[in-house]
Structures are given as C-alpha cells and as structure tokens.
Design a protein that fits this description.
Blueprint: H1 10-23, H2 26-38, H3 46-58, H4 62-71, H5 77-89, H6 93-105, H7 112-125, H8 128-140, H9 142-145, H10 148-160, H11 164-173, H12 179-191, H13 195-207, H14 214-227, H15 230-242, H16 250-262, H17 266-275, H18 281-293, H19 297-309, H20 316-329, H21 332-344, H22 346-349, H23 352-364, H24 368-377, H25 383-397, H26 400-409
Helix pairs in contact: 1-2, 1-3, 3-4, 3-5, 4-5, 5-6, 5-7, 6-7, 7-8, 7-10, 10-11, 10-12, 11-12, 12-13, 12-14, 13-14, 14-15, 14-16, 16-17, 16-18, 17-18, 18-19, 18-20, 19-20, 20-21, 20-23, 23-24, 23-25, 25-26
Length: 410
Amino acid sequence: MKLKGLSPTIATCLCILKACTLQGALDMGQEIHADLIKEGELENNMVIGTALVDMYAKCRALIEARKLFHELLTRDVVSWGALPDGYAQHIDGEEALECFEEMQEDGFAPDGATYVCILKICGNIGAAEKGQKIHAEITGEVLFADDIVVVNSLVDMYAKCGMLAETQDVFDELPCHDEVSWTTLLTRFVQHGQGEEALKYFELMKLKGLSPTIATCLCILKACTLQGALDMGQEIHADLIKEGELENNMVIGTALVDMYAKCRALIEARKLFHELLTRDVVSWGALLDGYAQHIDGEEALECFEEMQEDGFAPDGATYICILKICGNVGAAEKGQKIHAEIIGEVLFADDIVVVNSLVDMYAKCGMLAETQDVFDELPCHDTCQLCLRFWGACQKIGDLPHGSWALGHA
C-alpha cells in the first residue's frame, strides 16, 4: 500500500498497530508512531494513543508504553486497561497492581476487561489479599457480579493462590456458571492433587446437564489417575467413543492410555495404545510410566525397545522412567546402554534430573565402583541427595570404603 503511494488513514493505522501487537513487530509500530507524530495525529486523539500504548506494552516495550501513556492528554478506562494488560502478559505483576491502584486513584472505575486482567495477575503472582479486595469490589458491582467471564476469573484467581476452600465457597455462591467455570475449578483441584474433589464436582456438573468439553475430559482423566478411579475413566472413554472424539485425537488418546496404565489396567492400556492412529514420545511414555509404577519391569523394557525401533527418540522424562525401571529390576546391562545413549545426547547429559536417575540406577544395581566413577565424571549432580542414596546402597551390601566416600562427599 505504501509503495503505491497511498497514505494510511487513522483507521488503517489502528488496524496495523493491532497487527504489530499480534506479531510483536515493534519496529513497524515505532514507524507508525513516528508518522503519526509527524502528521500531528496524536494531539487529543485518545483512541490512537491507546492503541500505541497497547502495541508498546504487548511488544514488551513497557518503559515506552508507560512514558507514552503519561503523555496522553486524555485517558479513559480503556487506555488505563491497555497498560496493566501489557504488564500481565509479560509477568510484571507488581507493576500491574500499582498501575491498577493508580487508575482507581485517578477516579476511573474498572470495566469487566480490566477486572479480568487484574484477577489473572493476582492469581499468577499469588496476591491473594489484593484478589480478595477486588472480589469485594465486584460483589458490590451488580453489573459485574453476574458477568460470567469476570466470575470465571475470580474462581481461577482463588484457585491459583492455593485457596481451595475459598474457591469452592465462591464457586458455590456465584449465580452463574458455564463449562469454563466448571473446567477452571476442576483443573485447579487436579493441579493441587485434590482428585476426589475434582470427581465430586464433575458429578455435580453432569447433574446440571452440562456436557464436558475435551479440556474437561482431560482434566477428569487426570483426576482418575490420582484416585485410581478406573470406573469413572471407563465411563469417560465410552462417552468419547460415542461422540467420535477419539478419531485422530492423540492428546485424548494418550490421556486414556495414561489413565488405564496408572489404574493398573495395563492390558487395556496396551490395547488402546496400539489402537491409536498416531503416537508420539508422550504416548509411549505414558505406557512406560504405567509399567514402571506397577513394577512390570520386563514389559517396560520391551516397550522401550519397541518405541526406539519405531523411530521415536526418548525425551528426558522417558529416560528418567526407564532408568528407574532398570534400577528396580537390576537390569544393569540395559542401564549401561542407556547411559551410553545419554552421553551422546548433549541435551540430556547436563539434565540434573536425568543425571540423578543415572547415578541412582547404578547404585540400585549394586555397581558401586561404577556409581562412583559415573558420579565423578558427570558434569552436574545434586551432591548431597545422591551421596546419601549412594551411602544407603553401600550399607545394604556392606561396602564400607564406598560408603565412607559417599558420606564424605554428602
């Protein structure tokens, strides 16, 4: 357009500034800003000024955003909202809260979008006290007390702050819920290991006549693994088949494999795994992890070899899982082969958790001389924890020299 000699209108500039925020195209945004100054278009034009603040904030140029914001001759709740939204996206929570307070001190009442933004920030940084104050404000504002998006943000804020009792109270008292409200609550329960509560509220959700989304199903399958709730997991599986949701959906398929495996239904897990139309290292890992948890070591080692034969390279989580299995079943030779693989993978050779698992595997296999050699050669290790594990292994077989070395390095 510019090459054709056409000058952008204000409407065009607003559109392109939005494109700049989407693409993080700060240079282009700065060019438009310079042109607008040159044309005198910024004077008394709050809309274009707000769009520029939004662009700078979302392109991580927060100093420029704040400077421009304070240069605006007129401001409203939208221009105020652009600034904390930018802070929120780039995890500068304290600055965002200060900005929110400054906005209120200037006499601007937050709109729904601003409440949603600031509640998200409170949840992200654990600012529970501030979140509770905002909750009190919202309760006094009839307009927002029934706003489903604000309500969902409020529930999410309490849950992220780890205040699960308050989360339940707020959820139960609120006048409106939708699928997002329920899924938010269920997800936070699962994240805090409260599988039983998640399953209880899932039953309530169904009684309300709401159909679970894929996101809800993924969450509840995780709750089933936490609680060993195989029956509920099978119900969800049957519903997903009925709705045709399993076709070409590797994520939900993997979650089902994980649920069956961790609920000790290993035959069903393996059967479903082989029915998946597409598989990746995560779905392979779900099966392996199930075998590992239920001490079916030989099956797990076979599964690991099958995975590699299919051309899938293990990730860090898979290496940790298989090294644990090797240690548990005393598969020293297999463990040594995996050690050789890890040395060749620079990405994992410096991974502290993989390294710890490697040393732990050798110690469990009773290969104490090799354990010490590996410990000395590896580029990183959690010294105290590993030495104490090493010392425990030495105690079991009465190896005093290596035990003394381990204690001396703990």
